[in-house]
Design goal:
By secondary structure, the protein is an alpha+beta fold. A 4-stranded mixed beta sheet has the order 2-1-3-4.
C-alpha cells in the first residue's frame, strides 16, 4: 500500500512537472513570437521613418537648390535690367547733348530739303522745342528761305525737349527726330545685344 501510494505521488509529481514544463515552454514560445512580432513591427516602423526622413531630406535639398537657382536668376535679371536702364539713360543723355543748336542748324535744313524734294513744301511743318525756336528761327529764315516762301512752317512744340519733328501740317505723316525717339531707336538695337552678352556671360 505504501509503495503504491509513493508511486502515485511520484507519478503526480512527474505529470505535474511535465505539464508545468510544457506550459512554460508554450509561454516562452508565445513570448518569443510576440517579441519577434514587436521587433519586426518596430523595424518596419523605423524603416518607414528612415525612408520618410530620406524623402523629406531629398525634397528639402531639391527645394533649396531650386531656391538658390531662382535667386541667382533673379539677381542676373535684376543686374541685366539695371545695366539696360543705365544704358537707356546714357543714350538719352548723350543724344540730347548731341542735339545742340549748331547741329540743328545744319540737320533741319538738310532734312527739310530732302523731304521737300519728294512732296509739296506748302504742306510741310517743322516742330522744334520752345526753348530752341528763338535761337534757331533766324538761321532757318536764311537757310530755308525758299521753302518758307513756299509755305513751310517752323513752329514750337511744348512736348519736345530736344531734337525736332518734320511732317505734314495736319500731322497725318511725320518723321520723329526728337531725342527721345532717336534714343529709343538706339536702345532698341543695343538693349537686346547687351541682354544677350549678359546672358552668355552668365552661362
Amino acid at each position: 500500500m505504501d509503495v503504491q501510494l509513493q508511486e502515485l505521488i511520484d507519478k503526480i509529481k512527474k505529470d505535474g512537472v511535465a505539464s508545468a514544463e510544457s506550459a512554460a515552454a508554450a509561454i516562452v514560445s508565445d513570448a518569443e513570437k510576440k517579441a519577434a512580432a514587436i521587433v519586426a513591427d518596430a523595424e518596419e516602423k523605423a524603416a518607414g521613418i528612415i525612408n520618410s526622413a530620406k524623402a523629406e531630406t531629398a525634397r528639402m535639398e531639391k527645394a533649396s537648390i531650386d531656391a538658390i537657382g531662382q535667386a541667382g536668376r533673379n539677381l542676373l535679371i535684376s543686374f541685366r535690367d539695371g545695366v539696360v536702364a543705365e544704358l537707356d539713360s546714357l543714350i538719352k543723355t548723350e543724344v540730347t547733348k548731341a542735339y545742340d543748336a549748331e547741329l540743328l542748324k545744319k540737320l533741319i535744313p538738310e532734312t527739310v530739303k530732302a523731304w521737300a524734294s519728294k512732296t509739296e513744301t506748302d504742306d510741310l511743318a517743322v516742330l522744334i522745342p520752345e526753348k530752341s525756336l528763338e535761337d534757331l528761327s533766324s538761321a532757318f529764315k536764311s537757310a530755308l528761305k525758299a521753302e518758307i516762301d513756299k509755305g513751310l512752317e517752323v513752329k514750337s512744340d511744348s512736348a519736345l525737349t530736344s531734337g525736332f519733328r518734320i511732317g505734314t501740317k495736319d500731322g497725318s505723316a511725320f518723321y520723329d527726330f526728337s531725342s527721345e525717339a532717336v534714343a529709343d531707336l538706339f536702345a532698341s538695337y543695343l538693349n537686346p545685344v547687351v541682354a544677350n552678352i549678359l546672358k552668355e556671360a552668365a552661362k
